[in-house]
């Protein structure tokens, strides 16, 4: 499962950051997950809840910001959000599209309680 390996690396980062800040607890973790990132938000949450037991983040919430796929047509410069993954410009029909957003998989924010 792809999501489990993402969460495993996420926890490595979380533990490192918590140690750095001498945090007592991690209370909230926010991720940006693009529509084209290959990760399914629901599965990320399940993996997170499974993994967080017995860690500093055992009470933490995983907050996911879903980033829609945004493309720009190289021919007519039309910008649009796509939810169908059909890579054709809805304005001129060209298939020469540039992806502007939607591939992210980023750790946006960690909230911690510091002693
Ligand atoms: Zn176009």
What would the keywords be for this entry?
binds zinc ion; alpha+beta; 3-stranded antiparallel β-sheet; hypothetical protein PF0899 fold; 27% helix; 115 residues; 3-stranded mixed β-sheet; 2 helices
What does the model show?
The chain is an alpha+beta fold and 115 residues long. The chain has a single domain, classed as hypothetical protein PF0899 fold (2-Layer Sandwich), CATH 3.30.2320. Helices cover 27% and strands 37% of the residues. Helix 1 packs across helix 2. The radius of gyration is 18 Å and the shape is elongated. The N and C termini lie far apart (36 Å). The mean pLDDT is 94. Zinc ion (ZN) binds next to loops.
Report a brief summary of the structure.
By secondary structure, the chain is an alpha+beta fold. It contains two helices and six strands; from the N terminus they run αβαβββββ.
Number of domains: 1
Distance between the termini: 36 Å
**Residue runs with pLDDT of under 50 for 5 or more positions:** none
**Beta fraction:** 35-45%
Shape, per Cα inertia axes: elongated
Quick one: how many beta strands?
Answer: 6
**What would CATH call the architecture?**
2-Layer Sandwich
Rounded to an integer, what's the Rg over CA atoms? 18 Å
Any ligands, ions or cofactors bound here, and which? zinc ion
Biggest sheet details: 3 strands, mixed
Largest sheet strand order: 2-1-6
**Contiguous helical run count:** 2
CATH topology: hypothetical protein PF0899 fold
Helix fraction, binned, reads 25-40%
What is the oligomeric state here?
single chain
Q: How are helices and strands ordered from N to C?
A: HEHEEEEE
Nearest-integer average pLDDT: 94
CATH class: Alpha Beta
Please state the structural category: alpha+beta
């Amino acid at each position: 499962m792809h999501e489990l390996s993402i969460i495993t690396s996420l926890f490595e980062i979380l533990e490192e950051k918590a140690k750095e800040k001498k945090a007592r607890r991690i209370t909230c973790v926010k991720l940006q997950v693009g529509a084209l990132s290959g990760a399914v938000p629901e599965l990320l949450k399940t993996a997170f809840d499974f993994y967080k037991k017995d860690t500093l983040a055992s009470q933490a919430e995983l907050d996911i910001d879903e980033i829609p796929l945004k493309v720009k047509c190289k021919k007519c410069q039309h910008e649009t959000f796509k939810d169908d993954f059909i890579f054709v410009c809805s304005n001129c029909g060209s298939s020469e599209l540039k992806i502007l957003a939607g591939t992210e998989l980023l750790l946006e924010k960690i909230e911690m309680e510091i002693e």
